[in-house]
Amino acid sequence: MPRTAISDPSKVDPARAESSLLAALNGFKLDPTRSYTAQVHNQLREAIVRGILPPRTALSEATISKLIDVSRTPVREALAQLADEQMVLIYRQVGTIVAPVRISLLEEGRFVRSTLECASHVQLAQTITPEQLTEFGQIVERQRNAVKSGEIDRFSELDELMHRRLFEFAGREHVWAMLEPIKRQFDRVRWLLLGHVAGHAERALREHEQMLAQMASRDVAGLGASVSSHINHITAHLAALREQAPESYFVD
User: DSSP E strands: which ranges in 73-119?
Assistant: First the structure.
């Protein structure tokens, strides 16, 4: 079913918007020794990625400034940065809303991650050290515990840690840093899958366990196939997700 056009932010429910902002900024305190703009940007970006600030939520400069006790300038600058990253949409003279997930950007993120992670992890399988394998196994074990206890947020954080550490094991930490802005829409969908599609965390865990075993046995061919399948599953589950998530979340 085609998605509706992006709505005018003036028509977004203000009560829902304020409630979402309260949840996104709950407990947030500015560090006076660091850039206020960077801190506000990071906090809002993380809340958007995790779905705490859902698509089409109105983001009022005045409300955000009041909630975190800061002038409107760093808030305005942070929102401009998020607009550049296509995380928010700014309507001049009207307001700002959280952008829906754009499918074309999601596909770009999937393609880049699949290409780079397959290449990097296959090479890593040939050089990984026992110490690195041990750390990889410990992260997977922590993921297993998170799934057992139903800590979906914790599992997602450990998933991110695992993928980052595999790049660092290969001496490619800058590649991971380069991937960060490209995979934002990908990350938003990953959080949605964990919350809306039954069994997603369990399936991801099984795939991580398989990747660990293949890395340990230096099964290069099997590992390449597993990494590709693991990354590409997110689009395979997109149809089910779009049936369950709010219709406003996506735009083609």
Answer: 88-91, 95-98, 101-102
Q: Which residues contact residue 126 at a Cβ distance below 8 angstroms, ignoring those fewer than 6 apart?
A: 218, 220
Q: Which residues pair with residue 251 across a beta bridge?
A: 102
Answer whether residue 6 shows pLDDT above 50. no
pLDDT digits (tens, 9 = 90+) for 190-212: 887 776 666 888 999 999 999 99
Q: Compute the distance between CA of residue 49 and CA of residue 153 in angstroms, rounded to an integer.
A: 12
Residue found by looking up tokens 């990747």 in the block: 211
DSSP class of residue 12 equals S
Strands (E) across the chain are located at: 88-91, 95-98, 101-102, 250-251
Structure tokens at 60: 């009022």
95 φψ region: left (φ > 0), alpha (ψ -120 to 50), beta (else)? left
